[in-house]
Write a structure and sequence with these properties.
Blueprint (H helix, E strand, L loop, with lengths): L10 H13 L6 E2 L7 H8 L6 E9 L5 E7 L6 H8 L2 E3 L2 H8 L16 E5 L8 E4 L5 E5 L1 H8 L3 E2 L7
Parallel strand pairs: 2-6, 3-5, 5-8
Antiparallel strand pairs: 1-7, 2-3, 2-4, 6-7
Length: 166
Amino acid sequence: MCGAELKFLPEGVQRVAAALQDSGHAQLPRMLEDAARTAQQAADALGIAVGQIAKSIIFRRVADDAAVLVVTSGDRRVDEHKVTALVGPVGRADAAFVKARTGFTIGGVAPLAHATPSVTLIDQELFRFAEIWAAAGHPHGVFPLTPQDLQRLTGAPVADVVVATA
């Protein structure tokens, strides 16, 4: 992309595309025909395993009202107790909080280019895959990357943040 194409994308996707370009990430966002508000919808639209979807879960940290972003594998569930052990007590974040802190609506929260800085954790389970896909700032927007790219782009630590699987 040379930049002119970006003006036709939704504002959130433009922010993500600019952040990806600025970081030298070769893969820019693409728009899906149908909304991919859930990991399963995104996986179905892309023809990949649901675990390859890097879903963004936002919590509200109690101590300072900061947004806590947990980027987890689409086939896993975040363990709130594990997150609390790493960042302090957290609670659920409503749609207004998510939009205010990240600049994105639920179902399109990208792991980068947030309106305000978020405390970010990356689920170690994402490293099971060579390629993952993340939301790009809109329910129709996604972009591919590797788990290593995600860590480089966000600067976030990798941690065990999910409910144990049997």
